[in-house]
Amino acid sequence: MAKPLMAKATAVWLVDNTTISFKQIADFVGMHELEVQGIADGDVAAGVKGFDPIANNQLTQDEIDAAEGSPLHKLKLKFNAAAVGEEKRRGPRYTPLSKRQDRPAAILWLVKFHPELTDGQISKLVGTTKPTIQSIRERTHWNISNIQPVDPVALGLTKQSELDAAVQKAAAKKAAEGDVMSDDERRKLVSTEQSLEMEAEPKIPTAIEGLETFSLSDNDDDDKEDSEPLVDADSFFNLPKSSKDDDEQP
Q1: CA-CA distance, 239 to 248, in Å (whole number)?
Q2: How does pLDDT run across 131-148, given as a tens digit for each residue?
Q3: Residue 29: CA atoms inside 13 Å, Cβ hemisphere, count?
Q4: Backbone dihedral region of 49: left (phi > 0), alpha (psi from -120 to 50 degrees) or beta?
Q5: Nearest to 152 by CA among 114, 195, 119, 103
Q6: Dist. CA 60–CA 43, nearest whole Å
Q7: How far are the Cα atoms of 57, 89, 160, 207 from residue 183, in angstroms, in the given order?
Q8: How far is 248 from 237, CA to CA, in rounded Å?
Q9: Cβ distance 126 to 150 under 8 Å?
Q10: What is the CA radius of gyration of the chain?
Q11: pTM of the shown model
Q12: 86-125 pLDDT tens trace
């Protein structure tokens, strides 16, 4: 259900000017019943000026009268035709001034680790413009030499669930196009939780790539040595006797 503008100030006005129950006021403004009771006791919203919902076209007097007459009646926000569709407005999200300087670092992280994301997706995630994204992609940004990639979730520019949803959408689009993906690309297209659970595939060092079929041991030489007959010292010096030696014997 839609909530009124300046909810706490509206609750202060309703507490001070009506006999509506704390539960009804809490349900209308989206606060806890104990918070509304704290407003009545002066412990909450001290110094907050009441915001008149009737004068500001959020409630009618008939609606307030009905709520005062029945504790079970739920206050309903006055229908405003001009506000229809405001919640569905598209475009980059608002980024606080304190975090706007972190957006280039977040954009560079997304461009580097998730190049499959479109400029529109990145724009919605971190609240930036497409020309800024393009300048970082092409490394023509005026401060590109000083920008270091930082996870936008760690910077507080987006939520992990929103980032995972955008990555999954990019993965589905990639699969629909039928492009062949490498293992690294496939790992980038899954959510963070799934990629952390994957086991890293062993890779062959480039220095010995192509030598997988060769053996580095000396087993072949050992087999050759085992096949040759062993010769001891005695047999080596056991020379054949000549006929002269036989004649000299007594």
Answers
A1: 17
A2: 999 999 999 999 999 999
A3: 27
A4: beta
A5: 103
A6: 28
A7: 58, 38, 23, 21
A8: 21
A9: no
A10: 40
A11: 0.41
A12: 455 555 566 677 778 899 999 999 999 998 899 989 988 9
